[in-house]
Input
Amino acid sequence: MQNCTICNFNLKKINEFVFKCEKCLFLCSNLKPGYGREIEGINTLRKENFIELIKVIKYLNISKKLKILEIGSGNGHFIEECIKNKIDITGSEVEKKDCENLKKKFPQILQIKLPIENLSHNKFDKFNFIIFNDVFEHLENLDLVINQLDLYLDNNGKILINLPSSDGIIFKFSNFLRRIGIKKFYNRLWQKDLSSPHLSYFNNSNLKLLFKKHGYNSIYSNSLNTVTKTGNFKRLNSTIKNIVLCHILNFIIIVFFFLQKIFPRDIIFHIFEKKKK
Output
């Protein structure tokens, strides 16, 4: 494992697959990157959070016609919310089959794999927003990815990153459990042994540092809900097969739903804009 991607400082080994920067606290894994199914039971949460994101995007883009590119559209829920708001949205997926399935519902779908391996084989339309919804933390070669985003951005274009935070209360609690020998919850947050594991975990500070290194300012940041009142049992049962345990955890999550605003949030988002020269 090399030095930290963000600040080039030393990485300390945390367990068999996670490394932590001792300076900026960036976390990265040596898990194998992949692409695959979305996690079950989080559709309601994502739709609610997407509505909040779109409100912010429209507020920041009030004088300009919106043209958005979403990287990694999954089942297309963000696209659906954009269409409801009459926003020009182009979705994307990595695999050809996934693109074809999305095109059955939405006409504007591109096949994009970041980082792009052969620039000469691609046509680059320009957008004023590029959106990563729970995708950026699954990517490798982040410096190259950020550099290549310029190919899709118009003048004064913006990048929105929505991802889980290593400063969140759930992440910190799962890390505490890992330290006392209960590894399942920590491994689950990294999506270890699933088709598309996390390669990175950021917090507000080191995510801003990464984009600052590439000439971007964070012009807006906030947090999103981590859980909803409904749909959590299905989400839990997708990886925990003990029904009784799922019911207990589901009750705890419902209680946590009402308390989450007083705790450090586990989902953060930033909007970045290229510094003016």
User: Anything to note?
Assistant: Residues 11-274 form a domain with the Rossmann fold fold (CATH 3.40.50.150).
